[in-house]
Automatic annotation (TrEMBL):
The gene is Hectd2. It comes from Circaetus pectoralis. It is an enzyme of class 2 (transferase). E3 ubiquitin-protein ligase which accepts ubiquitin from an E2 ubiquitin-conjugating enzyme in the form of a thioester and then directly transfers the ubiquitin to targeted substrates. The active site is at residue 698. SMART domains: HECTc. Coiled coil: none annotated. This is Probable E3 ubiquitin-protein ligase HECTD2. It comes from the Eukaryota. One of its GO terms (molecular function) is ligase activity.
């Protein structure tokens, strides 16, 4: 089987799987290669799946061991002598290419990869120092990269010798904890580009299994070493693992792999190793790659609710679920889980209402199946507050809105209009609940003290209802808000537990009050005498209704001067005061309002950035996708006016495209499902072409007169979208 396949293609190594599972006796030295037994694949033993205790480790991507924790340091065995340098190796490769004699290169590869000791001898920076710290792996990354970059361009026998050597290394009988040299070897082997080929997946799976089975302390080292890998190669490693999971779930050629029942541990092992890379990525600021690069869109096509229910039911057992590793699930898939979970809760509560009604021998009323909100336009906020407070038990039913004195039936349009009008009114600066910061273009909670914070609870409930009913809101909260909203993600049973309190940094303040954050940053970098030049204490001042009030950042703060030694503490306490303590009651009410609607274990799956996208939509616009999904009324997509329209819109700047979207839908952001979820419609307006376009934001509908030429259409459209009042929040 080893002789089949074209260049850079390998036959499957399925016939080695039993050999790797069983103990390998009599492993010779590197000069006496192991004779591999080729057993019948039916005799393969099923290995236990590897997964986390979900309730103890909600997110391995975040929960890494403390910096000071070290694995037991074992004495490193003496390494074979390896004197070849990067230049020596490159010279050998060039000579082989020109002469056709690959013996020297073959010997290097077959020797280097024959055992973990040889791997360390070749790629360790210096064979003498132990390199036992988490900050320095001791790996000569440049040499590793050069050797792997050359590997795929060598003859087949060279590439096969590397794979045989890796098998030898994996067959070793391990006794006791791993040494740091073992961890280095694992780190190096993971980077082998041969594992992108499906024919090597059996070997790759066993490598992943051994890494996944390492102790938590060993994982700690691998996480910190991995964050030092270059961005390009880090992305390649992540993509390789994602591809491995996808092809194991949906193989293009099922016969390439052992039967799924014989290798149920493949996917759990790969996912756990991927979690180590996600943890490494979260330790770097800015991250090496975006969190969305860990999404596996293949999972969008599996039974997500079964995964979710397995996670809920067997969380403390060793039953694997992708929900244990939420970083791998895309935002689109998470939205499906949340929507289905919401629908099931809606149905359950509606059914219970029906049963209660029948048990009391009362006539069932279809309205009892919905959250019916009746409001007057002239008393929008107070009526909404009263309705939601009075019908708190019905918040998880399907929402239906009625405006008193109007005959309209709510087919979705009235609900959206209610949201838009409420948000417009509540966030108006004159209302005083939220302050708009022009520098950051976002809103933040007013720190003014009041007797009743119920309106903040209303805003939280509105956000929850929007997520629950798949409505995108035009709200501009900073990312910090969503981080606080998930602190904690599940409402604590003890009402004395603080909620909405999270670790905040100067970076969080920059996103809200950049000018103040810049001033604090200048204080931290000031080279003079802080105490004499700034004459500040651990006391801050805020204006409330024209009165200046002072607050101590710590006990007796007004008597403690800010100095060069304690300025970091001062800045941290100031930021914590602004973003946590000064608005605690306001945000706590907001938090409880949101969770009164959205209380669900599904929130444990979400990052703060993903909650923002669910509430407000994505800022990424794709007008070509909008063109493909647009519906028409009175027009055909081939009509001249429509062709003019799309020529103009596709040529717009991003700013004008956002204005158009805001004009037509009430928001310049896109739902999680993309442009197709907008259900955007262009209708023919029979008015004069002297008129400007008109939009019905409640229905995402644009009414377009049949303009005679492209120039006129562009002129009228720009005037319309640039001067409409809309539902702006400023």
């Amino acid at each position: 089987g080893l002789e089949r396949g074209a260049k850079n293609q390998f036959s499957t190594f399925s016939n080695f799987i039993t050999t790797i599972n069983q103990k390998k006796e009599g492993i010779g030295n590197r000069n006496s290669p192991t004779q591999l037994v080729i057993p019948n694949i039916k005799n393969v033993r099923d290995l236990p799946p590897i997964c986390l205790d979900v309730r103890q480790k909600q997110r391995i991507s975040i929960d890494t061991l403390p910096q000071e924790l070290k694995a037991p340091i074992l004495p490193e065995p003496s390494l074979p002598i390896q004197t070849k340098t990067v230049k020596d190796f490159q010279d050998d490769v060039e000579k082989a290419k020109s002469s056709g004699d690959w013996k020297a290169v073959h010997d290097f590869y077959s020797t280097t990869f024959d055992s973990f000791l040889e791997i360390n001898a070749a790629f360790k920076k210096d064979t003498n120092p132990p390199f036992n710290t988490i900050e320095d792996s001791g790996i000569n990354a440049k040499f590793v990269n050069v050797v792997y970059d050359a590997l795929l361009n060598t003859p087949q026998d060279v590439q096969k010798s590397v794979l045989k050597g890796i098998i030898n290394g994996l067959l070793q009988e391990w006794k006791g904890p791993r040494t740091k040299d073992d961890l280095r070897a694992y780190c190096i082997l993971l980077q082998n580009p041969q594992f992108s080929n499906t024919s090597t997946y059996v070997i790759y799976a066993h490598l992943l299994r051994q890494i996944a089975a390492l102790t938590e302390a060993d994982h700690h080292f691998l996480v910190h070493w991995s964050k030092k890998i270059s961005q390009r190669r880090f992305k390649q490693l992540v993509d390789r693992l994602l591809q491995f999971i996808s092809l194991r779930l949906f193989p293009a050629k099922p016969e390439e792999f052992p039967p799924m029942v014989k290798c149920t541990w493949w996917i759990p092992s790969a996912t756990k190793v991927l979690a180590l890379f996600n943890a490494a990525n979260s330790l770097v600021s800015p991250p090496l790659i975006s969190y969305t690069d860990f999404y596996n869109s293949t999972l969008d096509h599996i039974d997500l609710m079964e995964e979710y229910h397995n996670w809920q039911c067997y969380g403390n057992s060793h039953r694997f679920s992708f929900c244990q590793y939420p970083f791998i699930i895309s935002i689109a898939a998470k939205k499906v889980i949340i929507q289905r979970d919401s629908e099931q809760q809606m149905i359950s509560i509606a059914r219970q209402s029906l049963v209660d009604k029948v048990s009391r021998r009362q006539k069932p009323d279809m309205n009892m199946l919905f959250l019916n909100v009746k409001v007057r336009r002239t008393h929008l906020v107070s009526d909404s507050l009263d309705e939601l407070a009075r019908k708190r038990a019905d918040l998880k039913k399907k929402l239906k809105v009625t405006f008193v004195g109007e005959a309209g039936l709510d087919m979705g349009g009235l609900t959206k209009e209610w949201f838009l009008l409420l948000i417009r009114q509540i966030f108006h600066p004159d209302y005083g609940m939220f302050a708009y910061h022009k520098d950051s273009h976002c809103h933040w909670f007013s720190s003014f003290k009041c007797d009743n914070y119920s309106e903040f609870r209303l805003v939280g409930a509105l956000m929850g209802l929007a997520v629950y009913n798949s409505i995108t809101l035009d709200i501009r909260f900073p990312p910090c808000c969503y981080k606080k909203l998930l602190s904690p993600p599940i409402v604590p049973c003890d009402h004395n537990t603080l909620v909405g309190i999270c670790d905040v940094t100067l970076g969080d303040l920059f996103q809200i009050m950049p000018e103040l954050a810049h001033g604090l940053s200048e204080l931290l970098s000031y080279e003079g005498n802080v105490e004499e030049d700034f004459y500040s204490t651990f006391q801050v001042f805020q204006e409330e209704f024209g009165v200046i009030k002072s607050y101590n950042l710590k006990p007796n703060g007004d008597k403690i001067p800010v100095t060069n030694q304690n300025r970091k503490e001062y800045v941290q306490l100031y930021v914590d005061f602004l973003l946590n303590k000064s608005i605690y009651k306001q945000f706590a009410a907001f938090y409880y309002g949101f969770h009164s609607v959205c209380a669900s274990y599904a929130l444990l799956l979400l990052r703060p950035e993903e909650v923002e996208i669910l509430v407000c939509g994505s800022p990424e616009l794709d007008m070509s996708a909008l063109q493909r999904s647009t519906q028409y009324e009175g027009y055909q997509k081939t009509d001249l006016t429509i062709r003019y329209f799309w020529d103009v819109v596709l040529g717009f700047s991003l700013d004008l495209q956002k204005k158009l979207l805001h004009f037509a839908t009430g928001s310049d952001r896109v739902p999680v499902g993309g442009m197709a979820d907008l259900n955007f419609k262009i209708s023919k307006s029979e008015t004069s072409t002297n008129w400007l376009p008109v939009a019905h934001t409640c229905f995402n509908q644009l009414c377009l007169p049949p303009y005679k030429n492209k120039k006129e259409l562009k002129q009228k459209l720009i005037i319309g979208i640039s001067n409409a009042e809309g539902f702006g929040l400023e």
